[in-house]
Design brief:
This protein has 16 helices and 10 strands. It is α+β, with helices and mostly antiparallel strands. Helix 6 runs parallel beside helix 16. The radius of gyration is 24 Å and the shape is globular.
């Protein structure tokens, strides 16, 4: 019996090896997967983007791994990412099933987690048009000024900027989506900020459940929290949407929801329901608050860590704006290339969304000469792309100058913080303007330093969910303008 059992085990192992080698024969190279687990033991939960980047040394910048029984292609190169997301955009525009994404995406009625289809195309066009039509309704400058006033009120004493920044961006997105007259109350903004923190943690912890779907039936605490967070968010957005629908006037666009309703009634073609508009609005608020807030906090972090960089930023702002009664405006952007380079370098070295939301192939296709089957999950490792030593000189060195040419002009090739192609962030334009205006006004107004005796947290010990957040830290903000600024628009 023992010999027969050993023989059976040997036969099963041999059959598994032969089948696995046959299935992977045309795919990119990668580690051999264990039965059941696949390559899960090679990818940690704390910094999976680094683990995947380290695999490039052995398997190259395009390789495959296996998460349980699911095959995953990992892209770690800007050029390969462009081939997939731009040159073959529709081939790689799908979304795999994502357990927490189904909660976050309101049963696949959203833009972020809904897979590619004609319905998604229509919904995406309506959202983009609405964002362009309504972005001025956010009145970003006023929210930056309120944040500056809160920083000023600390009178140079130590404080933590994180909650203030998130609350400011939450109010800014509330104005964009719901309008000045119908924006959320403070307690609603606080509730939604807590919701987005829960979602970020749950999305970052999704691999186990997506790899082994049986675990979704186990009442994990994170599942309970995500479900409750979804209910809180849905109650607010559904209530505000009904208020807008009952008072909508096509010739009086008050905010993003109005702009979406206008597009919905003009271009729907029967593909969408009002549910899709609510989900699109939620898609704008959640990442529109989370990602810019995280970036702005990192901007303050690096301004403190590199005082010579902060001094150069102050110098350029002073040269362009001067010691006048006005504050930086968006039209000043072309004259502030070092500030733009600073923002780009923070986005590169941090890679605040280190692993983009997974893609999937919509048809059988090819990539970098390899055959990629339909419905293959694709990871875009933005952290690896932004730290690729073949593209970036000294990739772990913080140097904003890398984004300036010899004439001091800005160039941003090689960086893709909002991803690329059809599934790139629809709010990219608004987010870029918002982050720039926050950065320009905060740095024009304040000198940022660590409190005496305090040190900044280690970047390598950051909190990873779906975004990469800096550990909490204290700052001192000394106002560089000792007079009242008369024009604060």
């Amino acid at each position: 019996m023992i010999i027969e059992a050993i023989a059976l085990l040997f036969f099963l192992m041999a059959a598994y090896v032969v089948r696995t080698l046959w299935e992977n024969r045309n795919l990119p190279p990668g580690p051999f997967p264990l039965p059941v687990l696949g390559n899960l033991l090679s990818v940690g939960l704390k910094q999976p983007y680094r683990d995947l980047a380290n695999m490039t040394k052995k398997y190259g910048k395009l390789f495959r791994i296996q998460m349980g029984s699911r095959k995953v292609i990992v892209i770690n190169s800007y050029d390969i990412a462009r081939e997939a997301l731009v040159a073959k955009a529709e081939d790689f525009a799908g979304r795999p099933h994502h357990f927490f994404g189904s909660i976050f995406g309101r049963n696949s009625t959203d833009l972020a987690f809904q897979t590619f289809s004609q319905r998604w195309i229509t919904q995406h066009k309506i959202a983009l048009t609405a964002l362009r039509l309504a972005e001025d309704k956010a009145n970003v400058a006023s929210h930056v000024n309120e944040l500056c006033d809160k920083f000023h009120s600390t009178k140079g004493k130590p404080f933590g900027p994180q909650d203030l920044v998130f609350k400011s961006l939450g109010n800014c997105l509330s104005s964009l989506i719901f309008g000045k007259e119908n924006k959320l109350h403070d307690h609603e903004v606080d509730a939604l900020i807590e919701v987005l923190h829960v979602f970020a943690k749950s999305l970052g912890a999704a691999n186990l459940i997506d790899t082994f779907p049986i675990f979704k039936n186990i009442p994990f605490e994170i599942i309970k929290k995500a479900t409750r967070a979804g209910e809180i968010r849905d109650e607010i957005f559904e209530r505000k949407f009904k208020e807008h629908a009952s008072t909508f006037q096509s010739d009086n666009i008050r905010d993003l929801l109005d702009a979406m309703l206008k597009g919905f009634r003009q271009k729907n073609c029967g593909l969408l329901q009002e549910e899709h508009l609510i989900s699109s609005a939620s898609d704008v608020f959640m990442p529109g608050t989370e990602t810019p807030s995280v970036v702005i906090i990192w901007l303050i972090f690096y301004a403190i860590k590199y005082p010579d960089v902060q001094a150069r930023l102050h110098s350029q702002l002073d040269d362009v704006i001067g010691n006048t009664s006005r504050l930086p405006q968006l039209p000043d952007k072309p004259n502030l290339p070092y500030l733009d380079a600073f923002i780009a370098e923070v986005q590169r070295i941090v890679s605040d969304t280190p692993l983009a939301v997974p893609h999937s192939t919509t048809r059988e296709t090819s990539l970098a000469g390899f055959l990629i089957p339909r419905d293959t999950t694709v990871f875009i490792n933005l952290w690896a792309i932004h730290h690729d030593s073949d593209r970036w000189e000294d990739p772990f060195c913080f140097r904003p100058e890398r984004f300036l040419d010899e004439q001091g002009r800005l160039h941003l090739e090689g960086i893709m913080p909002f991803s690329l192609g059809k599934r790139s962030c629809p709010g990219e334009s608004f987010a870029r303007k918002t982050v720039f205006l926050y950065a320009a006004r905060l740095l024009y107004r304040f000198q940022f330093e660590s409190p005496p005796g305090a040190t900044l947290p280690d970047e390598d010990d950051s909190d990873y969910s779906i975004v990469l957040s800096c550990k909490p830290f204290k700052i001192c903000a000394t106002d560089r303008r000792n007079k009242n600024l008369l024009n604060t628009k």
